[in-house]
Hints:
52% of the residues are buried. This protein has helices at residues 2-12, 46-58, 62-79, 99-109, 112-115, 119-129, 169-176, 184-197, 223-243, 248-270, 299-302, 308-322, 346-358, 362-383, 411-426; strands at residues 13-14, 34-35, 140-142, 145-147, 153-155, 220-221, 271-272, 277-278, 281-282, 287-288, 323-324, 327-328, 343-344, 390-391. It contains 15 helices and 14 strands. A hairpin with a 2-residue loop joins β3 and β4 (145-147). The chain is globular, with a radius of gyration of 20 Å. The longest helix is centred in the middle third of the chain and has 23 residues, at 248-270. The chain has 432 residues and is mostly helical. A three-stranded antiparallel β-sheet has the order 3-4-5.
Amino acid sequence: MEAHLRALWPVLTRASPPDTSNARSSLIPLPERYVVPGGRFREVYYWDSYFTMLGLLASGRTDLVGSMLDDFASLIARFGHVPNGNRSYYLSRSQPPFFAAMVGLYAGATDTAHALRYLGALEREHAFWMDGATRLAPGEAYRRVVRLADGALLNRYWDDLAEPRPEAYRHDAELGSRVPAAQRQAFYRNVRATAESGWDFSSRWMRDPTDLRTLETTDLVPVDLNSLLFESERMIAALRTFRAHAGDTAVARRFAAAAAERRRGLLAAAYDSATAFFYDVRWRTGKRVSGRPTLAAAVPLYFGLATLEQGRAVAARLERDFLRRGGLVTTLVTSGQQWDAPNGWAPLEWMAIEGVRRYGGADLADTVRARWLALNRRTYHATGRMMEKYDVVDPARAAGGGEYPAQDGFGWTNGVALALAAEETAQPRSRP
């Protein structure tokens, strides 16, 4: 499997510059080479790329990681943010902001000096997510930023347009036609905000897990989004400190303070000590969505926000409630949506494995890794393919759900599998 995956990188790599002879093409040209997921996805996708980079680094392809970072920095320079993908119809939204985490990967594989070239892009992307923050009173929101009643400044997913997505127009329009006219724009905005989350679609965002018309994504403060922005603030502070030019110390202190305040606000709002878990939060009321636990609770562990006690408690809950034969299940709800049970997804498996390991849960981390890799290998030997998602409840069954058939290829599955296989070789493997 690993040899096959390393051989796939040239197949999934797009050369620079791309063919722009078709003036009607929606593709946004990028200056350097990049890796696409595969299957129906023929462009670069933002958060997919972080997990693809894990495999590129495991394959010794640091050069391609640098090229992709240059591409994302180029998109930020042109548009102020990294769009969902390099298509013109994606410009109104982003995706989970992994750019800072990508820069951290690259710095770890090279050195911190190489990361400095992305400092300006990091700060500009952060400004995109924080637009409007200074004008908010407690209990208010503007675009992607919210201020809770206690004054904590946090973020949500959003899209500036309130209309059907061009890439899924018929699906959205047909569903929207069954929403009361007065609520239709809010529905479309929630659909688009959910697409920005990357979890499109999931009971995580739905008041009624059987009805997509009940999406409430813009009403929620997601625990994983705010963990990512904590990492962004921390990375900017670290790079400013490392560079040490005139004025850098003051800016570094400001971003370090912002990271500390975000951590304080998120832990207070999102962690429930009674159930030992992190939840998304309804920003208007401050109430946790405790009835819809998801694997997003592992992301504060991955980025080191949780206290030691919280991290260990979340790990125990993951083992008790989420562990299945093929790995960790995404949610505990079987809704027919693809980001729900019985499916498992490589990016969430990776963050949960490494997050649990960070808090001393090596045995659980090794168990999840062994089960996930066994599922990847079993499917590969049966089909010759890597999949976008897997059924972790019944590993013999193909994953389903969502708006389109399960895709093979597949960028982030390849990346995580190679990174976990390399880790497995370096460490003793526990019994699944």
